[in-house]
Amino acid sequence: VQLQASGGGLVQAGGSLRLSCAASGRTFNNYHMGWFRQGPGKEREFVAAISRSASGGKTFYADSVKGRFAISGDKAENTVYLEMNSLRPEDTAVYYCAASTTVLSGLRVPDYYHSWGQGTQVTVSS
Question: N or C: which end of the chain has fewer CB within 10 A?
Fold first, then answer.
């Protein structure tokens, strides 16, 4: 599967952005989808994931974004979204979308994803 992430930009603290991840193929039938981020000098970290349709479309979030971010999927558009609200300077990072066929308990682990998008920069100013 090929993934194309977009929607990043510069926003003030407290603002909102919506990231998009356009996928080729029958993504929602076959893959779990996740968002990760990597800040300057930091390791790539889990942000959110949504399980494939056959697994119920369940959503998972990192504690740091729970209540502020929302992941969703549009089956018709074959696109996964990450709605980000109440953004903070510590949310500044390159955001990546990824596809996985792992078990649900593995969705927070980057190594369990086999396809990655190119990343989109999110910068939150204070």
Answer: C
